[in-house]
Design goal:
The chain has 6 helices and 38 strands. The protein is mostly beta strands. A hairpin with a 2-residue loop joins β3 (61-79) and β4. The two termini are 58 Å apart.
Length: 793
């Protein structure tokens, strides 16, 4: 087997997957004026990964997805000028991912106490992790392996939407009026476990003769530490969690009116108004809260401002409704010439509300609890590790129970908070366009338009603002005093022994500069932390584009549609609502000055061209090459289709990583990153356009996007060949052969971009930046061939 394969275990396994779909539609013309229709769609997928060891301790993962939709519609033509339309639907999505055969496991069979087993919210197998050295030197690249129910192993998500709409359409002279009401109620159940059955990490340090000073390097063994039941000093994550599965309900309703007015034969004016309402979400067991920045309270004689307020049976929703979400729309179409039309429009839309999209993860403080295992501690000489609470009884004081809001505003004193604001403006979008369309002879149409959009009150869903973060202005004003020790007036109020400032009568000055210093994540979070706002609406974006389209309609069997877009997308929020395709995961340098973040979005594609071609081959009955009988059936009536695309690559985000302990500082920029760029997979561009800052308290001069360089753009050609075979009047067989990415062109993926100085203020060298600019992935898929057939009867 070779020197690298001796004593290895090899096994093969299957990964079965099933996919089932069912669709049915029924139509009934009740009377000549009334039409009833309905549709049911069901889609189910499930799969199981291989279990190579054939036991539950190394379990396979099972996944199940279910989608169902029921739609009922009713149309009533009340008169020649009046139509009533009613629609009702129910849509459900459910997904479940969990380790096969592990849930329901009785941990007392492994020697754990029945009291500990009864504390689990979802019984499974305790997870044992071996980290580095000895029995597990290579696993996972970082020397980590384990068995049992791993963290985050169980995920359950179910969402059900009930929708109802009623629209009355009325024609009055030159006016086409529509009045309506939309209503939606969403029920969302979601939860993911962290470590509900225990997480116990073992490293060589507990069996080393220098477990503290040297980390056990060279003479310890993680499995030996496990046999002794002595855990490592730093566990890395909570050892026991009391997780919750949230059950949220979100209502939505809207009223609207629309008028399509035709004052002349050449002019149409569209005007409408919509009123949206997003009433606050509720949770089935009222496990929600919000942060009140003005709330005053006293704990152990200490006066404080700012704390959480919890939902109750009489006040179920923690949120206030915005009743001013009015959304006007206006459009105009004017035929200026026989073959020329001018179009323009403007519209405002609201939502979704952050209150609708919030889940328990963001506002469940006090309903989730974490317990830490202290398996070992340094000896008196600070050289060795000695046992404290061994694995046989890891939590002698029991599992920490959730307080469930009983502490009121004093919840999480000394540690951090998560919340969604009680009142937040809803996300708003302004859409606008103006264009001209001209029809040339021979069925050719050219359209040119300016299209734009403005997004306001967007959320930073990946990078969460912290109300305690110190502004760059505050850091610069206090730079020489930030680490000076000052009195800590909240010491008597903080009773949690795991809080970073528990028992401290003095703290660094930067702590007292925080807006709410009674809540803090402590050392390692210099610059302020502790009050996370998961429902902020600080982001905005603006998009402008010139869009042109040329369409040559069916002529001699030939149809063509070519489109070109020249656009620009700017934003200060490239990590939140706009993050579905970009690569900017950096945290803003200063949430209190987001002008520093305004730049091109990583989704900005400045130039994009596409063309779709369809050509009916001149072969077959009554065509240039006239075929009859079986020859026509086999070789006649084929259609060739082609789609080609060319586009710019996406901008490349500037990395953080200057090792600044105070804020997420970007490097300085010292040139055009695209100048002289090699643009190959070994080095798309070089890092020398950036330099390391030397000022701890000033923003790096580089913006969020590196200048002059983009990732590889799109180059693609798809080709298809299709034909319909007729069998009588009502039966049709369509056959199609297609090649996607026919030329097998490679679109290189996003290059590796990072900044890795050895110390703050030192310019990184080639060794530090080894691998920078390399491309290790492909953005598109290789050539794919498909052969399809569809029979309609």
């Amino acid at each position: 087997m070779g020197q690298y394969h001796s004593n290895n275990f090899f096994a093969a396994g299957s990964q079965p997957e099933t996919d089932q779909r069912f669709d049915v539609r029924l139509d009934d013309n009740i009377t000549q004026a009334q039409h009833l229709f309905g549709r049911v769609s069901i889609h189910r997928e499930n799969g199981t990964s291989p279990n190579f060891f054939h036991n539950d301790f190394y379990a396979a993962t099972t996944s199940f997805d279910h989608d169902g939709n029921l739609l009922i519609g009713y149309d009533w033509t009340m008169s020649s000028s009046t139509v009533l339309q009613l629609r009702g639907s129910a849509t459900r999505h459910y997904e479940d991912s969990e380790p096969e055969g592990q849930l329901g496991f009785d941990m007392t069979t492994l020697g754990f106490s029945s009291a500990l087993a009864s504390s689990s919210v979802l019984p499974g197998i305790p997870y044992i992790s071996f980290n580095s050295g000895g029995s597990c030197p290579q696993a996972g690249g970082g020397g980590v392996c384990g068995l049992g129910t791993p963290p985050y192993a169980v995920f359950k998500f179910a969402v059900t939407n009930y929708d109802f709409s009623a629209t009355l359409n009325k024609v009055l002279g030159r006016h086409e009026l529509s009045f309506g009401w939309d209503f939606q109620k969403q029920f969302m159940n979601v939860g993911q476990t962290l470590t509900p059955d225990g997480f116990y990490q073992f490293e060589p340090d507990a069996t080393s003769n220098n477990g503290v000073a040297g980390g056990g390097a060279g003479n310890g063994d993680a499995f030996a530490s496990f046999l002794l039941g002595v855990g490592t000093l730093t566990q890395g994550q909570p050892n026991w969690t009391t997780d919750i599965f949230g059950a949220n309900s979100n209502p939505y309703s809207a009223l609207f009116i629309q008028d399509n007015w035709h004052p002349t034969a050449t002019l149409t004016i569209n005007a409408g108004l919509r009123w949206d309402a997003f009433p606050g979400a509720t949770e089935r067991f009222n496990r929600m809260e919000y942060f009140d920045s003005t709330l005053g309270y006293t704990v152990n004689g200490v006066n404080m401002t700012g704390g959480e307020v919890f939902s109750s049976g009489s006040h179920r929703s923690p949120y206030l409704t915005n009743w001013r979400d009015f959304a006007p729309r206006f459009g105009l179409t004017y035929r200026v010439l026989k073959n020329a039309v001018v179009r323009g429009g403007f519209g405002i839309s609201h939502g979704p509300s952050v209150h609708m999209s919030s889940i328990n993860q963001f506002n469940d403080d006090s309903y989730l609890a974490e317990t830490t295992w202290q398996g070992s501690a340094p000896d008196a000489s600070d050289t060795y590790l000695v046992p404290v609470n061994t694995l046989s009884n890891p939590f002698p004081s029991g599992i920490i129970a959730p307080t469930k809001g009983s502490l009121g505003a004093a919840t999480n004193l000394g540690v951090g908070l998560n919340f969604v604001p009680r009142k937040a403006p809803d996300m708003t979008t302004y859409n606008f366009n103006f264009g001209v369309q001209y029809q040339f002879p021979h069925e050719a149409v050219l359209s040119v338009a300016w299209v734009g959009s403005r997004g306001l009150r967007l959320t930073f869903s990946n990078n969460v603002p912290d109300l305690n973060q110190l502004s760059l202005q505050t850091l610069a004003q206090n730079q020489n005093n930030l680490l000076n020790m000052v009195p800590f007036p909240y010491a008597n109020a903080i009773t949690d022994p795991n809080a970073p400032w528990y028992g401290a009568t003095q703290v660094p000055q930067w702590v007292m500069l925080e807006k709410y210093p009674q809540f803090s994540y402590g050392v390692g979070n210099q610059g302020g932390s502790g009050v996370l706002d998961w429902g902020d609406t600080l982001g905005d974006s603006i998009y402008h584009s010139l869009q042109a389209k040329f369409e040559k309609r069916l002529s001699h069997g030939f149809t063509s549609l070519a489109s070109f877009t020249w656009g620009k997308l700017l934003t200060n929020d490239d990590s939140g609502s706009l993050a579905f395709s970009g690569n900017n995961y950096a945290v803003p340098q200063d949430f209190q000055n987001l002008n520093l973040e305004r730049a091109l979005s990583t989704q900005d594609i400045a130039l994009f061209f596409s063309e779709e071609l369809s050509y009916d081959l001149p072969i077959g009955a009554r065509r240039a090459i006239n075929l009859q009988g079986w020859a026509d059936r086999a070789f006649g009536g084929w259609t060739v289709g082609a789609v080609t695309q060319f586009g710019d690559g996406q901008p490349i985000a500037t990395p953080n990583g200057t090792l600044n302990p105070w804020f997420n500082q970007r490097p300085n920029i010292s040139g055009n990153c695209g100048a002289g760029a090699a643009k190959n997979i070994n080095e798309w561009f070089n890092y020398t356009c950036m330099t390391e800052p030397t000022n701890l308290f000033a923003a790096g001069t580089a913006g969020p996007i590196l200048p002059g360089i983009r990732a590889n753009g799109a180059r693609n050609l798809d080709l298809s060949l299709a034909k319909h075979f007729k069998f009588g009047e009502q039966k049709d067989l369509e056959v199609r052969a297609a090649a996607y990415n026919l030329t097998n062109s490679v679109q290189f993926g996003y290059p590796n971009v990072f900044w890795a100085p050895e110390n703050f203020g030192e310019q990184p060298n080639d060794g530090d930046q080894a691998g920078f600019g390399q491309i290790t992935n492909q953005a598109n898929v290789p050539r794919q061939m498909s052969f399809e057939a569809r029979f309609t009867f």
